[in-house]
Amino acid sequence: MDTWMRFKSNDGGIVFGRVEGGYLHEYESLERPVPTGAVLSSRALTPLAPCAPGKIVALWNNYHALAAKLDKPVPAHPLFLLKPAGSVIGSGEPIQRPPGYAGKIVYEGELGIVIGRRCRNASLEEAADAIFGYTPVNDVTAADLLNENPHFPQWCRAKGFDTFCCIGPAIVSGFDWRPARLVTMLDGVERQNYPLADMVFSPAEQVSMISQDLTLEPGDVIACGTSVGVGSIRDGAMVSITIDGIGTLSNTLSAAGRTDAAGQSGTAATAGVV
């Protein structure tokens, strides 16, 4: 398995590459993973979200346990919505409460699939080959907005605010998701602990079936949906999502108009990589 991260350098540039032993071995890009020969100390860099997706495809009702709890039928095709690129933040960055919104904000710990090559109408084999790697995702939701208008469920608005898609801290390629579990902690208290193998659609099936509907581009992320244990976050609370073999994604909810400077520390983001 290889661990990949994305950083901001001291001159303001963005570098991407494979992390090993505290050093970044720089590659040209996720789309073109060719080594440049540069080796940089990660301590001198500021961690960012490990990719910059053009879109995030977020699934709903993709775990058997959650479908059973909600008394919903298992879908025949992935049920999804799109989150905008501007909603993405990395580990350690604050989730911002939307101005004027005092309602419930919800965490959803999820496995994220990172696309490595353009993918359209892909077979299962082609879809598996198009997966660059995996990363933790927190699909944040302003829950009270979902049904604010009884005539139109506002999935994209409720989930599309800036900072409402936490990704990282790293992408791991060659990761075997089948035996892994996802654990979500809220201020140190376990809230989710579920097996990724309970997914309705496997990652390759998701990529293949979604690619029949829309073109997936390098860097795009598919958030595989969540299972039981979703809950609300109060202002100032930290949500940490861990997938053994990948790392821990941690973000704190800040009140509207405020930034938690401690939450932007690069140290916590780097320390979450395993």
Automatic annotation (TrEMBL):
Keywords in alphabetical order: Hydrolase, Metal-binding
A UniProt-annotated Pfam family: FAA_hydrolase
Family matches, as SUPFAM superfamilies: FAH
GO molecular function: acetylpyruvate hydrolase activity; metal ion binding
InterPro entries linked to this entry: Fumarylacetoacetase-like_C, Fumarylacetoacetase_C_sf
Domain Fumarylacetoacetase-like C-terminal: 55-253
UniProt protein name: Fumarylacetoacetate hydrolase family protein
